[in-house]
Amino acid sequence: PCPIPVIAIDGPSASGKGTVAQRVATTLGYHYLDSGAIYRIAALAALKQGIDWQDEMALAEMATHLDIRFAAGEIYLNGDIITEAVRTEDISRGASEVAVHPALRAALLDLQKSFRKAPGLVADGRDMATVVFPDAGTKIFLTASAEIRAERRYKQLMEKGIHANLADILQDLQARDARDSQRSVAPLQKSENARLLETSHLSIDQAVNAILDYSRANTGKQVL
Ligand code: CDP
Ligand code: CDP
User: Fold this and answer.
1) What are the pLDDT digits (tens) for 2-16?
2) Residue of the nearest CA to atom 2 in ligand 2?
3) Residue 8: enclosing H or E segment and its boundaries?
């Protein structure tokens, strides 16, 4: 039997992964996995339970009984809506701190794989193509310059009415990029067979269309 198709989209912070991946999923009628949200939830849950972000074994143990639900655009943890609570700068940093621990990453693997359901999945994160779905039929590495990514994040915050400082955002983003790229397990890196998509000068629509075109051409050539 044919494996359920996966479009894996990896890349650094604010490269547009979430926005673009959700649109690709909607267009194709596929499911969507925001793997970054899972690391954010782990950081928030640890904070709530008084578990230190450095305590690898306690984090891994906690991860085996997380009660997480994604429904209608909201994220639930133990029945509470935490959609906004996981988007703060503090939790962004916490997510990338807990994400360095191999035992935690291993404990979150099956949960991520369980999103692969018919007719297909679009998954975004840092290690979708390299670790979680290495057999994905379509692999994309989405990127943009750090300056442009910082501006995107800045605009996103302003639109939400959150006051922010562009220089601080750039600094946080570069610190997170460095931690994500330099960790020993599942570092942020382009999978050898992933298609590089530099979006500094692409609109969201252009990026979405490039992925849909590539995926179509690519699956056509695939021998299953
Ligand atoms: O998920 P990730 O952190 O990679 O990025 P995102 O939250 O999807 O995108 C960050 C912001 O950049 C959003 O406000 C998008 O609308 C915007 N964006 C853009 O302006 N141009 C693109 N080509 C892609 C995203
Ligand atoms: O939206 P943004 O790209 O800023 O962050 P995110 O995708 O929500 O991911 C938050 C953090 O979780 C990242 O900085 C990574 O450290 C971690 N992460 C990871 O290690 N592996 C993934 N597959 C996804 C996220």
Assistant:
1) 789 999 999 999 999
2) 13
3) strand 6-10
Is the per-residue pLDDT at 162 higher than 60? yes
The residue contributing the CA closest to ligand 2 atom 21 is 126
73: annotated binding-site residue? no
**Residue 22 CA to ligand 2 centre (angstroms):** 16
Taking residues 174-196, report their average pLDDT: 90
Q: Which CATH superfamily is domain 6-218 in?
A: P-loop containing nucleotide triphosphate hydrolases (3.40.50.300)
Residue 137 marked in a binding site: no
Q: Which residues contact 126 (CB under 8 A, 6 or more apart)?
A: 10, 11, 35, 36, 99, 180, 186, 187, 188
For ligand 1, say whether the CB of 209 is within 6 Å of any of its atoms: no
The string of DSSP letters for 105-128 reads HHHTHHHHHTT--TT-EEEEESSI
Phi-psi region of 16 (alpha: psi -120 to 50; beta: other; left: phi over 0): left
| Location of structure tokens 């050898």 | 192
Q: What is the pLDDT of residue 89?
A: 86
Q: Where are the domains of the chain?
A: 6-218
pLDDT of res. 186: 86
Is 200 annotated as ligand-binding?
Answer: no
- Please choose from 19, 122, 128, 154 the residue to mutate so as to test ligand 1's pocket, defined by most ligand atoms within 8 A of CB: 19
Q: How far apart are CA 123 and CA 40, in angstroms?
A: 16
